[in-house]
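Sequence in, structure out.
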Amino acid sequence: MRRAVALLSGGLDSTLAVKLILEQGIEVFALNFTSPFCTCNSGRKESGCKSGARLVAERFGIPIKVMVKGLDYIELVRNPRYGYGKGINPCVDCRIYMFTHARRYMEEIGASFVITGEVLGQRPMSQRRNTLKIIERESGLEGLVVRPLCARHLEPTIPEKSGLVDRERLLDMVGRTRKPQMELADQLDIHDYPCPSGGCLLTDKIFAKKVRDLLDHKREVTVKDLQILKTGRHFRFKGVKIVVSRNHMENIQLKNLLQEEDTLVEPLGFPGPVAVVNGALQDGTGEFVGGLILRYSNNKAGERRKIRATFRGVSQELEIKGSLPEEIIEETRVC
């Protein structure tokens, strides 16, 4: 049976790789991974890598399976075997994670190999020759990963040696330029690809600070902990995490991301941001978060204001003298 599993992100490279293998008459089953750290956005109402991958799968008429990188993935981010890139991105371990799941799916559906849109030398950490070999070995896919875009620069794989895949119809792209991919897309009549390059928030040094702060202070991380990383201003006061919204939309988002152990703090009788405190208010936390709220509200005159703090359904009101000094804000700012 000529069947393959494709790691399909919805980006241009993986789309082209699938197309090249389909043109050889090989049946393709797409596998897409979603993550709270994906920056990919196509600008549509339904956007992101999952939507983009589904659009590609629908266009090509192939089945697609979507997998969520769950809390087990967070432990990988916390302690990667092969280290981090420029941020807190465990690129090599991440690829091993995805390839391992691809191997299991391959075995489940009776496929013979895995295909990816990787291009040798395109990504500095995970797409080097020696790293590609490590990823294959650690995921149990040695010789079973076909990379149609750069195959001619690599040793023939088992599917190529056996004649299952025609190596002469594979390509020799290399490096970081995307011009060859775009030219090939025009030749193959592939347009409006929804996620041209994609990205990972873990590579962003500023976002990485928030992730590291979370992992350093909390052992049992939840999905909402990850979601709130992308919302608001983040502070750490006496070991307590505090997130303050930046606009009305984030006011709503923070309220929706409230967890059982959190305290919701709101301005009382004046317009301003809301804040989420991880835990009950104690040891001066109420005065601190109140000062943050006043600092980022429209209360420019510095007069006293009241805030309402609600913890597990019980509310209390606190009077705040004024906004915090900038030096204290900067000392406690995570990001």
